Amino acid sequence: MVAVERRFNFGHTSSSAGSELLQDRFKVSYDHVLGRGSFASVYKGLDQQAARNVAIKVYKGHQQDDAKTYKESLANFHGAVQIMTTLREELTLGDALITSPTRRKRKEEGFDQEGIELDPVLIKRPSFNEESMEECLRQLAASAGNNWAEAVDLRRCFAELISHSVDKDGKPGPDAITGSLFIVTDIGEENLADRLAERADDDRSFEMEELRELHWSLVTIVCGLHAAGFVHLDIKPLNIMRFGPQGSPFPWRLIDFDGCVRTQTVVPSEKVLVTPWYMAPEIAEMQVRRYKQRDDNPKEDPQITVSRLMDVWSVGMCALEAVFLQPVLKPFFDEWNDTKRASSDLNGCSKFFDWLQDCQKPVMDADMCEAIGSMDKDLAMMLQGMLSKDPSKRNSISECLLAKWFEPVRHRLQTGSPPRKSSKERRNCSKMSALSGSNTSRACAVM
């Protein structure tokens, strides 16, 4: 299923007014819409107990009104609550490299560095690439001994779950009083899509260090999710929010966990909610199969085994967008989207899916690699590893963390001070401005 791009309009007020007090604590303002999705709407609210603004996600459907919509909303609600509850547990990157015992327990029981058992969840690669997985394990084991891994707090990678509706038994479910399904989280300042659009409008590219820090945030966000064993499937700038003032550490966090599933889960195509220009080629291949089977066997719905590498592709597209200040694949989707043949399930974009799933037609082609490489070869190499259409050749998220592009970040986390900027890096900043600030079709010019 192809999702429609949803933009969160911070500060926008709708024409319909009204408010409601939930759990005698959270006042939701229905006249202040932050965003609308397929199964829920997000409103600005007030936590009267803590005297702070919050975001309140209210799911569509009611038990007595629309059974189908309510069933889908209930499933999304339960999944999101379970995942967000898991993600708020104490976890640093150092902890994520350990299956058992936890960092606290290993200190109590005297486990030394040699006895640490690394978690293959974090570095899981397909079975056909076991040598690469073992090498990544060895590199992560060596890196885990450095304090930069302990400095990365993965809990700060996600929106904070403050509360949620509970039923009469106190379990997650429809509110015992109102019957509504809702989730309360902290509220973000802006999403990454708006930040990139603002930069594009001002014709102002990121400085090299700004870009590196943003990329590091994106990769650690995904690392935290993968370390917990989940795959998001719809990572895009709209689902990445800035929390706290600009310049604060780890400002960018991931939101919207409704479509999130456990890795290696087998799901039917109709349950995969994605945005086409951020979707992984494996999902595009499934959509192509679905398109071809529509006439032969319309009742058969193709399935796909969810992999963490799908998220790596999506966050790689976000990272590439930060370079060019525009969604790189959206112009192609818009051009090839056949609105005359559009259907409710395929949206007329089979040509785009055909291109995206074709491993012989890379996104990071020679021209783009040369253009980005002229700015920074390490940046080009990392993006190339993230955006391989062949998942067997795509980097895992842990390999991204160890990319040479991030050496200055790891140095800063380990020593507390950034390395001195070289004259080469200063020259690269001007090249980036020239590449990303030329016109509105920056990416298309080099593809």
Write up this protein.
- With 447 residues, this protein is an alpha+beta fold.
- Among the domains are: 21-88 and 159-187, 2-Layer Sandwich (Phosphorylase Kinase, domain 1); 93-141, no CATH class.
- It contains 17 helices and 13 strands.
- It has helices spanning 67-87, 93-96, 103-109, 120-123, 130-144, 147-151, 192-201, 208-227, 281-296, 308-324, 330-336, 350-356, 366-373, 377-386, 397-401, 407-415, 423-436, and strands at 19-22, 26-36, 40-47, 52-59, 161-164, 182-186, 190-191, 230-231, 240-242, 252-254, 261-262, 266-268, 303-305.
- The strands form four sheets. The chain has a six-stranded antiparallel β-sheet with strand order 1-2-3-4-6-5, with helices on one face.
- Helix 8 (208-227) packs antiparallel against helix 10, helix 9 packs across helix 12 (350-356) and helix 13 packs antiparallel against helix 14.
- The chain is globular.
- The relative contact order is 0.12.
CATH superfamily of the domain at 21-88 and 159-187: Phosphorylase Kinase, domain 1
End-to-end span in angstroms? 27 Å
Helices, by number, come to: 17
Binned strand content: 5-15%
Q: Helix coverage percent of residues? A: 40-55%
Show unreliable segments. Answer: 2-16, 98-137
Chain-averaged pLDDT: 78
Rg, alpha carbons: 22 Å
What structural category characterises the helix and strand content? alpha+beta
CATH architecture of the domain at 21-88 and 159-187: 2-Layer Sandwich
What is the ordering of alpha helices and beta strands?
Answer: EEEEHHHHHHEEEHHEEEEEHEHHHHHHHH
- How many strand segments? 13
Largest sheet: spatial strand order:
1-2-3-4-6-5
- Morphology: globular
Name of the CATH first level of the domain at 21-88 and 159-187:
Alpha Beta
User: Which topology of the domain at 21-88 and 159-187 does CATH recognise?
Assistant: Phosphorylase Kinase, domain 1
